[in-house]
Every structure is written in structure tokens, then in C-alpha cells.
Write a structure and sequence with these properties.
Layout lengths: L8 H18 L13 H8 L2 H23 L20 E4 L18 H13 L9 E4 L16 E4 L1 H16 L4 H6 L1 H8 L1 E4 L6 H14 L8 H14 L4 H13 L10 H9 L5 H13 L9 H4 L18 H6 L4 H24 L6 H4 L11 H10 L1 H7 L2 H12 L4 H4 L2
Parallel strand pairs: 2-4
Antiparallel strand pairs: 1-4, 2-3
Length: 425
């Protein structure tokens, strides 16, 4: 028996068109080893750049709204048009239009929403209209805006709900860009209406740090939402603490302890997450960018490197063990921590994972990351980082004695795990 919320054949056909458009616009070549997936923020920044681009997008969305009103006889009423005064004893709620919500990661208290989760939400919103009455966005007005002043387009910030907001704009932009007939628009009219007016609440915290911690806790409390990952914590918390004149490395352990004090299991920061948050400031931008891109496209628990895997002493300059005799000068030098070693280690972890997934696909075998992701990862041995240290030590010599093509082939083979047996000898 079909579910009551199953799509009609007409709506399913429109969904297929939207899915294809999203795949073409966002997922690049489709080669999982190529770093060419475009996330929500990058897509809108490139396709609708600057004020002129945003005005173009505003026009598209407003014309779509007028079209839906005419087709469905829908009269949603205007969205919230003025900035509200904070009300400590009451949480105001109101409706917003998609063009009122900011398009950059700076418009989210938590930072970038992970693209892999946004795509899940896109799928859910197309299958069943978003119920913002039950799951409202938690929004903030532009910090510089005064109560009573007009709400400017693209100005509102997300405390909770940036992923939902992003999914809404991805769907609506696709509908605007595709040449859909009136019948096709009407077939998914309920889904579109739900995204053109979304219920929101306004409950600002007294300080930026309290707002961040409140947003992170709200995200962790909802089972259907992904947990805030260590990159998200570090990226935003470090900014907030810097504004306060505090040095992240000096206070973060205390801050995590304070945050966890009144949190139940599953909501607080875990020991694995805390360890990663603590050493992230020591990593090179190449390390954090590589990890960010990987986690944008793979759910953390199903990725090459889970937070548990990242919680290893070797990745921290303060804790990296030297598994050699203290009087062995050469080995002590080889095993001295450097940021480059961690980049190479992460490249090999991700490269091995992607290679194994790709081989599974080529063999026409089903890839089940939810249940079998561990089988695609590299060997989690205690010496895996030491192997990378050895390779890093000789890297300059390799570059000096290899042609450019040979050097690229060597490093690529290393990153894909083909040299593991050689480095383990």
C-alpha cells in the first residue's frame, strides 16, 4: 500500500528534473577522487555575484512567488518586514521569505552547513513539504540593524536552520532556472509554497559566545540533525574568543569543561571531539581545508576519518610520541612533528578511502557507507603516522631526483595507499 505522502507521478517527474539539475550544477565531474563538488555557498556566490547578482536572484524568486500565487490561488501575506526588539520573556515568531536570509557562511552562527546533509534535506523537502510550523528556523536580524528598521534582502542570520534554509534556496533556484510548465510547477506547488514562506523564531542570546553555544547545543539535541563537528566548533569558537582578547589554546580546555557541565550524554562535546578541537589551531590551512572538503561530501561517521580516528596523539605537536631510542638522533629528527606530516597523513587516509570506494563502484558492487564505511578505510595502526613521517623526511630528495611526472605519480601512489607495504618495512 502506498504511503499517503508519496509523490504523484507528475510530481515525481518534476523532482527527477530538479535532481538532475542539482547533480549537474553541484556535483562536478562525478569522479569522487576529483575535488570539484561545489557547495551551496560557492554556487550562489559564483552564479549570483555581488549586489547585481543578488538582485537578479531576488527577482527570480519573487516572480516565482507571483507565478505560484496565480496558479494555486495562494495568498501568503507579506513576510516579516521590520526588525524586532528582543523580548526576554517571550519568543516572537513570524514568517520569512527566502530572499531575506543571508547567502554566505558568515550568515550562520555555526558556520558552513555540510553539503551532504543539505542534499538529504533537499530530498526530504521535495518528497514532503517542509513543515516549518513544527520545525521553525531560529533566526537573528542583522547585528547592525535597529528595531523598527526594514529587513533588508539577504540580511538575516541563522542561529539554527541554515541547512534547511540552504536546501530551500537550492530547490527554488532550480525551479527558477528550469523551464517548467505551469502544470509542472503546480505539481510540486505544496513543496514550493512551504519554502516561499517559512516560520521562524527570534530568541537572541546576550552575547556572541552564548549564541554560539546555544546554537550548537540545539543542533546536538535533535536526533535528526548532524552533530556539530570539531571543525565547526573550532572555526566559530576561535573567532568569538579572539574578539574577547582570549588565546584559544589557553582557555579551550576550560571552556569545553564549562560547556559540558550541564549537558546530558549526546549533547556535550565528546572526548574525541575535544581532542580534535584542541589541536586544530596547530594544523596548516591545507589540513583543515582538506578535512572540511571531505566532510562536506561525506558524513563524519561514514567518512575516511571519523572523530575517533582523528583523536590520536600523533596529530598533536604537544603529544606526538617518538617511537625510537632517545639517543637515536636521526630517528628523533624524522619523528619530530611538523604540519606537513599531518597533511600527508590526511591525504593518505582520504585517498585510500576514496580509492577503495571507487574500486567498489567499478566492480558494480553496492557501496553501503552507513554500514560498511570501516571496510574502505586504511589500516588504523599505531605506526601509521610514523610511516608518513618517513615519507615526508625523504620528500625533498624524491622531488630532487624525480622528474615532475615521476614525482606526481609517486605522491599520488602514496596518497592512495599503494605504497603502504613499502613504508611499513
Amino acid at each position: 500500500m502506498a504511503r499517503s505522502d508519496a509523490l504523484s507521478p507528475e510530481a515525481a517527474a518534476v523532482k527527477a528534473k530538479i535532481d538532475k539539475y542539482i547533480e549537474e550544477q553541484y556535483t562536478g565531474s562525478g569522479d569522487i577522487e576529483a575535488s570539484d563538488v561545489v557547495d551551496f555557498y560557492t554556487f550562489f556566490e559564483k552564479k549570483y555575484p555581488g549586489r547585481e547578482g543578488q538582485e537578479q536572484l531576488l527577482g527570480l524568486l519573487q516572480r516565482l512567488e507571483s507565478r505560484v500565487q496565480g496558479l494555486l490561488g495562494w495568498n501568503p501575506g507579506p513576510p516579516q518586514d521590520v526588525v524586532l526588539e528582543p523580548q526576554p520573556d517571550k519568543t516572537p515568531d513570524f514568517y520569512v521569505a527566502p530572499w531575506q536570509l543571508g547567502l554566505s557562511s558568515n550568515h550562520s552562527v555555526k558556520g558552513k552547513s555540510k553539503f551532504i546533509h543539505i542534499l538529504d534535506t533537499v530530498h526530504n523537502f521535495l518528497n514532503k513539504p517542509y513543515n516549518s510550523i513544527r520545525e521553525p528556523l531560529d533566526l537573528l536580524f542583522e547585528p547592525s540593524a535597529q528595531p523598527g528598521s526594514p529587513v533588508a534582502p539577504w540580511s538575516m542570520h541563522h542561529s539554527v536552520g541554515a541547512g534547511k534554509s540552504s536546501a530551500a534556496r537550492i530547490i527554488l533556484e532550480a525551479v527558477c532556472s528550469l523551464t517548467l510548465s505551469d502544470a509542472e510547477v503546480a505539481a510540486i506547488g505544496l513543496q514550493i509554497k512551504a519554502l516561499l514562506r517559512m516560520r521562524a523564531i527570534y530568541d537572541p542570546a546576550p552575547t556572541d559566545e552564548e549564541q554560539l553555544l546555544r546554537a550548537m547545543a540545539a543542533k546536538a539535541q535533535q536526533a535528526e540533525r548532524p552533530r556539530p563537528d570539531p571543525l565547526m566548533w573550532w572555526g566559530r569558537w576561535s573567532r568569538v574568543l579572539a574578539v574577547q582578547g582570549l588565546i584559544f589554546n589557553e582557555v579551550i580546555a576550560m571552556k569545553i569543561k564549562e560547556y559540558n557541565r550541564d549537558k546530558s550524554d549526546g549533547v556535550g562535546i565528546t572526548a574525541d571531539e575535544a581532542a580534535v578541537i584542541t589541536y586544530l589551531p596547530f594544523q596548516s590551512p591545507e589540513f583543515t581545508q582538506l578535512l572540511e572538503y571531505h566532510w562536506q561530501n561525506y558524513k563524519v561517521r561514514q567518512s575516511a576519518v571519523t572523530t575517533k580516528r582523528l583523536n590520536m596523539f600523533d596529530l598533536s605537536p604537544q603529544l606526538k610520541p617518538k617511537r625510537c631510542a632517545k639517543d637515536n638522533v636521526l630517528w628523533n629528527k624524522i619523528l619530530t612533528w611538523t604540519p606537513q606530516q599531518n597533511v600527508l597523513w590526511l591525504q593518505r587516509e582520504i585517498g585510500t578511502f576514496l580509492k577503495n570506494v571507487k574500486e567498489q563502484v567499478r566492480a558494480n558492487k553496492k557501496v553501503n557507507l552507513a554500514g560498511n564505511s570501516r571496510y574502505y578505510r586504511g589500516d588504523a595502526t599505531a605506526s601509521s603516522h610514523d610511516e608518513v613521517c618517513v615519507f615526508a623526511w625523504f620528500l625533498k630528495d624524491f622531488q630532487q631526483h624525480c622528474t615532475p611526472a615521476q614525482f606526481i605519480d609517486l605522491t599520488t601512489r602514496f596518497q592512495r595507499g599503494h605504497l603502504n607495504k613499502d613504508t611499513q618495512r
